[in-house]
């Protein structure tokens, strides 16, 4: 029998990077429209600004700085811009937001070699940069306006997690947390709309299900133990619906580049992110820990992939 071998890849697909990125943008649209309704047109405007200037800045990096004359925009920078917009406060100035976008693309992405080479999630790295550099704007929260009008007076308030952190109790309904009628970052408040977008990605087979399952499951189990030990830690359902947990678990931790490739690795990643999220929420000075926990787990991804890779077919243990 004559065997014919050829160069990799041996598995081919009609999928392209622009198609995948377009699906991600479509999945984010429900939460973005919700952000417009909850916080006014400015919230939606930041997402548009992020998508447009993200692609423009990446084009500048590739054509001018990296001298890649054959580069064609693929939509990944637009996704980074939209995700960064969803992770900032509605009080963030547009020029501050653009500084974070420059850091996300220039430092967190292209300093490592560009798409597919970056270690950390660019949008979350940009958020961390803004949180350190402009803490007042990044931690000023608005009550939902419940109107699509741009000209609605806004009123500052605290997030449910911040209230729990300061007082040990919080008076907010689970329904409001679920639909998004609460203070928070632009794209994190409505769990319902995030789940709709997530369902689209699942249907399109663009998502790694193991990570959100183990991430959210770990938060539920761990917060249950803490709640039964001391109710001031907050109920498990409160921790799942509050803050940026759902946005982080469904759209940030599942990033194709910065998450593990193996099934076991994805489970480890989700468990680690869940544990660190609650440790930060419970014992650190900052009431939210989703972004930092995912960034910390990003750093362990190469190690996780190395020690969870499956055995080669036919390999015999020594």
TrEMBL record:
Source taxon at top rank: Bacteria
Positions of modified residues (FMN phosphoryl threonine): 159
Main localization category: membrane
GO cellular component assignments: plasma membrane
Cofactor(s) the protein requires to work: FMN
EC code: 7.-.-.-
Functional summary from the UniProt entry: Part of a membrane-bound complex that couples electron transfer with translocation of ions across the membrane.
PANTHER family assigned: ELECTRON TRANSPORT COMPLEX PROTEIN RNFD, ION-TRANSLOCATING OXIDOREDUCTASE COMPLEX SUBUNIT D
Protein family according to the UniProt entry: Belongs to the NqrB/RnfD family.
Identification of the protein by name: Ion-translocating oxidoreductase complex subunit D
Protein encoded by which gene: rnfD
